[in-house]
Amino acid sequence: MNIVVMGPVGSGKSTQAQLLASNLGISLFNAGDLLHFLSMEDTKEGKEIQRAMKTGALVDDKLVLSHVEAHLKGEEHKNGVIIDGFPRSLSQAENFSFPIDKVIYLKVSDRVNKERLLKRERNDDTSEIIDKRLNLYHKETEPILNYYRKKGVLIEIDGERPVSIIFEDIKREMGI
Q: Which residues of the sequence carry a binding annotation for AMP (predicted)?
């Protein structure tokens, strides 16, 4: 089973993706981690990714798609995968050739997301960058929800509750 876990930055998608991968015994793929490692390479692509990440912008769709799809062809994902942090734009979703069985969307308000992110105290979690990332999410990523809703694979979950309750909700909605 191939499952995408979506939600704005700070929604807890990585936590839920890890729990789900562990529960189902399948691999976990974090697109943000892949981009982070690529951004450290001293290449044109690495520098482009690094620029986008520092400013809170999205990385070029074609660039991300090619790397994500190449990675997902790996042996470790042959029995299924939980995908965290991808796709991030409607274009990526529409052009993603990897088969997706379910998309779990964690609904969390901007206020709660911002509170959570500011508590992390990371260098890239300034109030200004958080606002930019959330606005970008609403503009670029939220349109994906209708795309997956129309495909009949979207599961919407209230992400403003305790981690364990959210996870129980996900399992119930997925029938696992």
A: 57-59, 85-88, 92, 122, 133
**Residues annotated in a binding site:** 10-15, 57-59, 85-88, 92, 120, 122, 133, 161
CB of 144 within 8 A of CB of 87? yes
Q: What pLDDT, in 10s, does the model give residues 112-155?
A: 999 999 998 777 788 888 898 899 889 988 999 999 999 999 99
Residue 141 gets which letter from DSSP? I
Can you say whether the dihedral through the CA atoms of 146, 88, 12, 78 is positive or negative? positive
Q: For the beta carbon of residue 21, count every other beta carbon within 10 angstroms.
A: 20
- Residue ranges for the known binding site for AMP are 57-59, 85-88, 92, 122, 133
CATH level 3 topology of 2-174 = Rossmann fold (3.40.50)
Q: Would you kindly state where each structural domain of the chain is located, as residue ranges? A: 2-174
| pTM summary value | 0.89
